[in-house]
Amino acid sequence: MLVLVTAASAALFLTLSKTSGPPGTSVKGHTGGTGAFPGPMAPLPTYFVSQAIADSVTSPNDPRLVLVGQLQVDAHGDGIITFVVPSVPPGPFALMVSCPSCGPVSAGRVMLPVGEFQITSEPADTAVAHPGSPYTLLGVFFLVGAGLSMLRFVLHAWTTGDRSDSPN
To answer: Which of 8, 71, 138, 153 is least surrounded by Cβ atoms within 10 Å, i.e. has the fewest?
Structure first.
């Protein structure tokens, strides 16, 4: 009696330029090996989801997913992606792709975990001004305006001897 035993294994994963960082971090990634896909295909939506719930995600319509970009697959079946880490709370996240055509070779799964990323800090407060932002410029104009009013008051008091609270 002749028994043939074969094993099939397919693993889709991304090699990332960074595996941790705060929101706003730029990350590049590519599929491991060569020819991860049989050929070119439409861009694959790629998401972050908390690692604690990644196994329960079965649809790209799951509201717990946070879209980060599209995995682009070239003629050789190799995928690349560049994304910016979204504003999500710190913690471990799974990177998942939505690949409907992968279902037949992935035990029916269309949402595939392809990597891990650790968010290292809270999202930046969007109200904090950064150099060159409109908030910073507004603050500078406000300070300059207040400074000019004070200068007018000091000059008025010095030239007239009037020390009242109002320069008028």
So the answer is: 8
